[in-house]
Amino acid sequence: MNTLETFNQALFLMINATPSTPAWQIDVARLIADYLIYLVPLSLVAMWLFGDARQREVAVHACCVTVLALALNQMIGLVWQHPRPFVIGIGHTFLQHAPDSSFPSDHGTVFAGIALTLLLNGARRYGVAILLSGLAVAWARVFVGVHFPLDMVGAVAVACIAFLLIAPLWRAAGTPVTRSLVTAYRKLLAWPIKRGWLSS
Predict the structure, then answer these.
(1) CA–CA gap between residue 66 and residue 147 (Å, rounded)
(2) What domains can you pick out in the chain, each with its CATH number?
(3) For 29-44, b where at least 16 C-beta lie within 10 A, e where not — what string?
(4) What are phi and psi of 19, to 5 degrees?
(5) Which of 50, 68, 113, 200 is most buried by a 10 A CB count?
(6) Model confidence over 90-114: pLDDT tens digits?
(7) d(CA 4, CA 9)
(8) What is the pLDDT of residues 1-11, one digit of tens each?
């Protein structure tokens, strides 16, 4: 473990910005690290509001995988607290963050869980967009000093485990759950649906 942690810290220092890094690069990284995650709910909402039945089912599937993955993150954090770089005085930090456990990255887990589910279920356009955005966020959060590189690797691993755990449940109940949500959606948003503003 010591060798792995040494590698993790060395890789972090290779990526992490320093006081000599151009300010514009740090500013761009901050924006990516903090705000690009909003692309995830926007993409899922677009799939639901304007997609067909298959896209809606995939969007719900992706949400279920990601919720489970985030729950697994919380369990890992309770069992094993891994300090963030700034807590142990490594590198430089350019983004305020609570000193909670760094492993796995919640941001990385969200992107990995959504991208994995979309890509494996044929939603290629949205999946690729989320995947590329997730890679940018993973880099940015290491660059500004709030995560180690292996926090992001751990996020991908947790997302994969969540996908596998959800798979049998989704095969059994995914379609009925999605249909129930569609029924509720059609009742709640009947007015704009009737006018053709939203997909039915």
Answers:
(1) 20
(2) 24-93+100-174 (1.20.144.10)
(3) bbebbbebbebbeebb
(4) -60, -20
(5) 113
(6) 999 999 999 899 999 999 999 999 9
(7) 9
(8) 588 999 999 99
